[in-house]
Amino acid sequence: MIRLTPSRKTITGLAMAALTVSVPAHADTLVDNIQGITVGEDGKVERFTALWIDDDGRIKQVLKRQDELPRDTDFRFDGKGRYVIPGLIDSHLHVMGLGFGALTLDLSETSSLQEAQAAIAQYAAENPANRWIIGRGWNQEKWGLNRFPTAAELDAVVGDKPVWLERVDGHAGWANSKAMQLAGVDKTAKSPAGGKIIRDSAGNPTGVFVDNASALVQSSVPKPRPEDRDLALSKAQNILLSFGITAAADMGTSIEDWQSFRRAGDGGWLNIRIMSYAAGTEAMELIGGPGPSPWLYQDKLRLNGVKLYLDGALGSRGAWLKQPYQDDPANTGLPLQTGAQLRNLMSRAALDEFQLAIHAIGDAANSEVLQAIDELADTYEGDRRWRIEHAQIVDPADIAAFSKHGIIASMQPVHQTSDREMAEARLDPARLEGAYAWRSLLGAGSRLAFGSDAPVESPDPFAGLAAAMSRTGADGQPFGGWRVKEAVSREQALAGFTSDGAFAGFADGRFGKLVAGQHADFLFIDRDILLSSPADIRQTKVLATWVGGREVFAAGQ
Amino acid sequence: MIRLTPSRKTITGLAMAALTVSVPAHADTLVDNIQGITVGEDGKVERFTALWIDDDGRIKQVLKRQDELPRDTDFRFDGKGRYVIPGLIDSHLHVMGLGFGALTLDLSETSSLQEAQAAIAQYAAENPANRWIIGRGWNQEKWGLNRFPTAAELDAVVGDKPVWLERVDGHAGWANSKAMQLAGVDKTAKSPAGGKIIRDSAGNPTGVFVDNASALVQSSVPKPRPEDRDLALSKAQNILLSFGITAAADMGTSIEDWQSFRRAGDGGWLNIRIMSYAAGTEAMELIGGPGPSPWLYQDKLRLNGVKLYLDGALGSRGAWLKQPYQDDPANTGLPLQTGAQLRNLMSRAALDEFQLAIHAIGDAANSEVLQAIDELADTYEGDRRWRIEHAQIVDPADIAAFSKHGIIASMQPVHQTSDREMAEARLDPARLEGAYAWRSLLGAGSRLAFGSDAPVESPDPFAGLAAAMSRTGADGQPFGGWRVKEAVSREQALAGFTSDGAFAGFADGRFGKLVAGQHADFLFIDRDILLSSPADIRQTKVLATWVGGREVFAAGQ
């Protein structure tokens, strides 16, 4: 393969080349009077009292209690005794999905039709630039309505622009008259197979469209414009920084997403670090070209590789299992592609040094991916950092295979606490032995990269840290933790959300640890997470977030 | 419309903000002992003897004979008395087309089948990474063959990979057996309408496919890979720099082209400045998002706007004329879209501040675009710099309309010298009054941005300068110049390839003039173009090309 490295021989002589060397400015900052915690070079937790930051935003020195403070720094920032930890890394989320979700009207907390109408009217007034009012979360049962709401009830609050609201379960949509008019839906419209148009006694659509009938209106909702995308990115970034996430792996980047990331970088407003995994090999080639992109914008953005899917999810019984679902004995789920197709896509990416991040939830899917990696690893040598995304249900017999090629298990601790009852329904106890098996995977030599899968779950990493070390949900259930032998230590949980997340994204040495030479990405928080219980850790408030030696979020501002 | 400008309030205090200010390095360069020519701030040609360049590649001072040389510069470059002119700007070309064309096998100079076979074998040996051997320019008549060549004659020199060669006129293609096999073309293939498969007496395809039959093989030629695109960009850049082109308007940038430009910028090997015009509004939105991109990579790349087409070309009688073609009395050519469609696309772009560059060759097309601009100019106020690309045949009655909104005529002087006999066949003398009417357009208050339309013509700007001031071709014909009243002055020609090209691309103040504060883009050449005849100017050799204060091309290296 041709790697293009145009020669620099066109620079005449050493003297001209010297012109391109920039002279460093000698402005540095000391952040002192802090109670710092980090995972040191040896993987052990260490405490420190000050950070000395160079003018390029990198750490010059991590100072401990006994170290002498530098005398001649240009700036000094008083930490006022607050707690400091490394910026946290989310190794699996969907940046634009998080942003778009947050920009959408959420009706899930409304308890009456009138309350929902008021929320819709307020949202429309606050978002005058929106061409459509889009929302979700309504539930007429919760409202005590005993019937579906109507288009007329929406028209009463928003009549001048289309409104389209998805029911809480995603199985119905509610349109106003303007939306139905734009979609060309009237009395003559026919319900499609697997869907139903709710009608009044005269046969006119009332405004609610069930299941496949939703597409009749949904298909008219315009695609987001570039400015909508930029707004969603900005929103997602602000949410993540407010939770203390300073770097994230974006799983399934489209070319449109990537262009938005680049606009943020070009425009100087990209404050979070994004490790990008393209949505399939076509997007990968279009975004990355002949290989992964370089690190851009002072290590704020890189296309690392590609996200592929081998199966679906456990909840919808789309996860591919070796044996049938306990609660659906004729069904084993199914692979989304054949083994040959998977291997072809993996080869296509690996040939050009793209990193592979493969979604596998069921034990059959994990087995197949492990097998495929084992077959390809001989051909595609070197530091590949093969990733399995989710790795939720692994046949205990397959756990050892994670060690063979240093395969990274990219897992989301909160999925365990959210899904445990559903998992117990889907799987018998023998298979639950390999469910969310964090400690077993670590023990087998795998590396855990923790994340949230936001917006599927909240991106709050303190909830993730608490779940990782306790196997207990926000409600304190189950007491003592679910299959608590798979919990990880406090240090392992922190590494999963910091240094090991950086390693999983080829960012080790750049960020993820508070050590000299790495970017100064850190958080001021309101408690000592080494001394707090998991339940207390879950309550942690982020006071301020710094990325590259700059404060990019502060609570209450 | 929302313009996203994320607030910077997250930076705490003035002290932290001060950290982002970089301290300038004090390394500068004096290029002296030169005979310099430039178009000064007042549009007049000026001479100078030295350039003082700052460490960021911008001009600190243009020194004249009487000026005192600075004493304390860090570096000094001896120009050895050579001539220096500003870097030249090509306002209309196709960067990737130029690069791909140059990477393709050219058989147009071969005078026998044997010579062609040798060239094909050599090219295949020199380009082992090519999956297909692609070429053009063969002519069996010139070879004295009196028959089409055969697949077997190609197999004899390249049998292991597919070969596909276009005839000189583009009306036939010649394949080897491997190419036919990959395309699935055999005895059973049928000639499509408007095409013919040449067959032997047994009915087997012999390897030549005429007109529409070419698609049978052409459709199997693989799309270029990203590394192919990067190679083409590198090739185009080297060609342009060797001709003294330091900046170019790319007319019809695709997202794939743009990604290649960005890889060059990110990788530090983008040496030419590219002003990009997207290939249609979809590419425009994908590349630019909510508006033109910022200037990137120290003013090396910007998406300015969009290229649209209103008609075709004069040669193929696709240009849209007010009256029928003189040599085809039933034909006026035709518009490629309706006036309403054109205005919709123009509005779509202008709404988001994208610049419009509209291809119009025939007098009816120019009239329509002038009318559309006049209608839209009230709505889309401000500094729009509407561009008409080619503006070849303008009704003399319409020439004055170019002045009304400061419309830029983006014209290619060499098209005039190449096309004059064809134009005389297509048009009667009355209409030739408005053909390639450079001086009339200037006189009407339009600004001329000159270019080459490479790879349609050679990108050599000295051929363009010579044609612009003489209306005479490389062969010296016609003596005294064709409709020479439309020739422009030496100063106007130089401005069309420098400062006015920069203005047409919103780059004025950045490059295009050798004045303090602009990038130091300049050429060392082998003659004084102020004292040379047009025929002599055409022979100018570029000795070295500097962009941003760095030598990026030197002859003979």
UniProtKB/TrEMBL annotation, chains A, B:
Residues 78-553 form the Amidohydrolase domain. Pfam families: Amidohydro_3. It comes from the Bacteria. CDD domains: YtcJ_like (cd01300). GO terms for molecular function: hydrolase activity, acting on carbon-nitrogen (but not peptide) bonds. InterPro entries: Amidohydro_3, Metal-dep_hydrolase_composite, Metal_Hydrolase, YtcJ-like. Residues 1-27 form the signal peptide. Keywords: Hydrolase, Signal. The keyword Lipoprotein does not apply. PANTHER family: IMIDAZOLONEPROPIONASE (PTHR22642), PROTEIN LONG AFTER FAR-RED 3 (PTHR22642:SF2). This is Amidohydrolase. It comes from Pontixanthobacter rizhaonensis.
